[in-house]
Give the backbone structure.
Amino acid sequence: MSALTSIEKRILSYLKDQEAGATVTSQSLAKALNYGGTKMYKKLVRAINYLENIGELEQTKRGHYRLSGKVSKTVVGTYRANAQGFGFVTYAEGQPDFFVPRGRALNAMQGDTVEVEVLKLANPQTGKGSEVQVLRVIERAVNQLVGEFVAYPSEVRQERQALGYVLPQGDYSDAVRVEIDPAGIQPADHAVCIVKISQYPTAEAPHILRGLVAKEIGHRDEPGVDILSVLYQFGIPHEFPEVVKEAAEAVPQTLSAQDLANREDLRQEVILTIDGADAKDLDDAISLERLDNGDYVLGVHIADVSYYVEEGSALDLEAYQRGTSVYLTDRVVPMLPQRLSNGICSLHPHEDRLTLSCQMVIDSQGQVKSHRIFRSVIHSSYRMTYDDVNAILEGDEGLRQKYAPIVDLLEDMSKLHHLLEAKRIKRGALDFDAPEAKVLVDGQGHPLDIQLRERGVAERLIESFMLAANETVAKHYMTRDYPMLYRVHEQPDSERMQRFAEFITAFGIVLRGKVETIAPKQLQQALKQVDGQDFEQAVSTMMLRSMKQARYSEEALGHYGLATAEYTHFTSPIRRYPDLIVHRLIHRYLDKKPSHQDKARIFDQLPGIADQSSKMERRAIDAERDVTAMKKAEYMLDKIGQEFEGVISSVTSFGIFVALPNTVEGLISLKDLTGDYYEFDQAHLLLVGQRTGRIFRIGQKVKVRLEAVNVGEREIDFGLLEAEPVTGLDVDLVLQRSKQAKAANKSAKGKTQDRQRQDKSARASVKRKRVTKEDKASDNKAGASKSKGSKANKGRQEDKGKAKSKSASKRHRKELSEHQSKDSRQAKKQSFTGDKASKKSAKSTESKFKQFKIKRKQPQANRLG
């Protein structure tokens, strides 16, 4: 184990001089050690993190640090493989990954839980991360894989004693093969199969597994097989067990007098639902009354799913395992059987339905003055769609006549929505209004079009009302100290926020406040500064990526993005298990006040439910993103050679990602940017030409040609045709820096080849992220859209796309880029070796370049050159 750095030694020395058990914050430590300034503070934080990693320091519940009194050289974490033989180990959320060099991974596979030994500590001064070796595999992540079967020729079958091999779907190295034993099912060539693993990799054959085909899903070209394979890949059950089906069939589809006992009868009130036109699981309805004093009485009425799904029943256990409904391009995989989700629980118009209601009296400032939470029965009067409500509010005369009885009601709802939205904005709530795409498919699952989802007043109105109800329910039970399941979104990690602060300086924006305690209001101000700019979406996306993931918790930790101290999920129990639990608790508390023993028992159950629900939510999101990426790639298959205009959505050390207006995203590889040698500035996410000073940055308009598509790998490759000149940066300073660095460029050819080899490995590690808007109306509404059309021979087209592809390797660049960014280290500048004076000069110029002198200019619209 290498020696500690000077910063790490100073930290330990300082703490040893304090009283036993003394704790410090990173800020107080920086002050004591005189580490002022952002750059030094970042190094200090890295040093603290790694001293904690090896057991020298420990963190208290309050986030302070102290000496732990023990040192551990081993760490347990999750292994993530790279196609080139190296890997990374993630051990704690928000902490930098450990790097596993080639040959040090033992026989670990993607996702395995491993114990590693620290070989070299990270060096905060150089930015180089810790290196480890895998000592043992503690737990295998998977016991089955999904992939396409490729048959061996007869002579190879004899030699290998195998029918062929399966290329597993997901984040696996190109080298990984699962050889198929003859004892199991003998699948057809190019069939997509489920393989039960019988033998894991060994040191002698680190990429070869053995297994039996457990199920043949279907030929790769059969309609629907592609999406079924994703469901199997992520372990998402799409069929209900017989015992669950039987339980669902036993649920009555009409209400009895007994069902109405102890419920307020709201069937005479005007209550309506507003959803997407294709939605079938209608779990929320709303009502509104305007009082003489100007106050509003808002009613949010949610399907009482918990009345039908009893705790511990077959329906409940299945819902717990699924966690959430999954919405894919051509289907919905429901959490509950359709007899409930689309039947007795769905708030269909003109039918009596059981609900839990949250009624709020709201004043003209958007403040909830009082509220009630109670059992109810409703009779929805209208089943409205977002499109119709938006049209009515925009003055469509035909629809205003058709729905004349509720036009005034809808306008009042719009007014209340604007009050609630203004209140959220005032307190600092963040609105990541990222474009969402909907892939329209025909009856065979072939994509016909990609359309952006509109988010009009109707969508935002429902969002405002659901947020108000969720917040009110959370506050109600938190103030009473009753156990509850909360939706939490914690303060952003200071290092990630520091990187975001550095990134936006390239756009002339200065983030006010300390990154450790940055308030949502301050981030909101940054979003306002980019409103209407070409790079608005890029800044919004990068800000969202700097946030922690929202999750479920038994503790009310607040919701950072919504700028509220109390928040839960109450409004979607048909499709989310946490909402079902919240309803179940509400029923219990309406019946009687919980005793201390009741509280303790309930509180002990909630952490497991919260953890399971968070995991299942993440699984569903990953599957939905994967299917969307697959269908987008398939949509682009027949467009190879066509030209498109787009915007740079991400800049990395290995290339540029470009997003088209329909949200399709593809890569321009760094090796294809000819005519110059480009240096990556990680802090500001720029590529800078060493000779010409040409700059590529996020938000820049470009014109590209589609070069290749690989549906199986979800890869889209673009070639650059034109790029809008970058304005606002001091290009003279960039050119000066380039000239200074030019003296050190003697080994350009060798370095370029090294970089291209790195690009090949890096290309295997990026998985494009789709931004998920937290608690938006789209998170409360979902449905599946189907349309009819002609079938396309996807298999032949995909083969054509693969043949034209410049790289058949998987995009596992994510691991490499995340390792660099989590360490918060600057990318190694790929400048060329020279004399010491040249190095010193380049370093001096680099420090100047970091401090961009911004010249604000109006962007030149639609100019490409």
Summary: The chain has 23 helices and 33 strands. The chain has a mean pLDDT of 83.
